[in-house]
Amino acid sequence: MGLLLLVATACGSRLPESDFGDGPDRTATRTAAEPIRVGIVTSATSPVGGNAFTGPRDGAKTYFDALNARGGIDGRRVEVRRCDDGGSGVGNNECVHRLVDEDEVVALVATAALDYAGASRVSHARVPDIGGQPIGAAYDTYPHLYGIYGSLAPRDGKPGWDGELYGGTETYRYFKRERGARTAAVVSYNQSASAAYARLVTRGLRAEGYEVITEQVDFALPNFRAAAADIEEQGADLVFDAIDSYGNARLCEAMDDVGAEVLAKVTNVQNWTSTVREDYKDAPRCRNALWATGASRNYEDTDHAAVREFRDGTKALKTRSQWQVEGWAAAMWFTDAARSCAEEGVTRACVDRFMAAGKPYTADGLLLPVRFEQLPEPPRTRRTCLSVARWEDARGWVSQGDMNSECYDVPQLRYKP
Residue 142 has what pLDDT? Predict the structure, then answer.
């Protein structure tokens, strides 16, 4: 998992509380002929580099473009207002203020924010935030926020259950049971968020019976060659990481240089992109050992109707990514919610009722069933499915089995966000 997904959200705002009051739902006063306005907040420019967070935005925008070309929602276009928060909490609050108060959007869709500082304000304004990426803990903290992977937490203003979140071991179970892996290396930076995530991965691997090799490199001057040499010497079957995309590519280069061959170099949905050949151009052996796991259907699975629709709608995009699929699915989710409001009109309250109803959602099969429940106690175990793909230069990302049947009953391990 890349470092970008390890950052905890800092909640709060410099904007006055009165700016986000529980006033009447002004969106209800619009006429049926007017467009339905939605907002997309993206850290399009941020300290971690350009385009790191733009996949969900691009997927959602292209879905709405295709929808409008077909006549919109009951004859009404969807008008997309985008805001780049610059990857900062201050910028995020500014985007929330502009979209929620000034533009009066019905909902936020496909949020991908490095620092979702405005999350509490979105929730206070009762604006449904649909299909956002859980880069921090916001989607397990606040009501009216509906992350792309769902949540079982109370969402009462505190993260998870009394400040603790829970995650399963299904990825580690998969590689042990289906691929025969027994030894895993975990590579991290000597940086707090990276080290904390590495500890969680290590706990999960050990819970599944792996022998674990830990490798930590200096954040400022990482010696990936030394880590790769140790991985080779100790004969790891798998390599997991808690480092960024750039570091992953450099680690792979080092592994090729020292001759380290593994069953799988495991990455996550954020790095599940069509640019693998370019990103890992100097590491052909490691590149062809890349595996990715997630909770959405592989964008290469063109035998599936919903994937074909996504591919047709995104032909103009220069690259493909799994985050684009999830942004597309988020836009579809909003559209289904808005269509349920035909009788009373598309309002924040009506869209939120659809989202909060508790019915599992799959976006026509693009997502594993997404659920929102508010369990008073965290589950000890959970049956969890996963989508798995392997990179091959000749074919791109090749799915390994079907995500709806690759399921395991696994323990849920607690951790601090």
Answer: 98
**Domain of residue 407, residue span:** 167-298+379-415
Express each pLDDT in 142-168 by its tens digit.
999 999 999 999 999 999 999 999 999
Name residues whose C-beta falls within 8 Å of residue 68's C-beta, 6 or more positions apart in sequence.
77, 78
Say which CATH number the domain at 287 has.
Answer: 3.40.50.2300
Residues 157 and 224 both lie in one domain: no
Structurally, the chain folds into a number of domains equal to: 2
Confidence of residue 2 (pLDDT cuts 50, 70, 90): very low
SS3 of 230-244: HHHHHCCCEEEEECC
- Rounded Cα distance between 155 and 210, Å, is 33
Q: Do residues 151 and 172 both lie within one domain?
A: no
Phi, psi of 382 (to 5 degrees): -155, 140
Residue 47, token pair as written in the block: 């300290």
Note whether 268 and 293 are within 8 A (CB). yes
The answer on 243 and 104 residing in a single domain is: no
> Does some domain include residue 199?
yes
Q: Are residues 344 and 291 in the same domain?
A: no
For residue 364, is it within any domain?
Answer: no
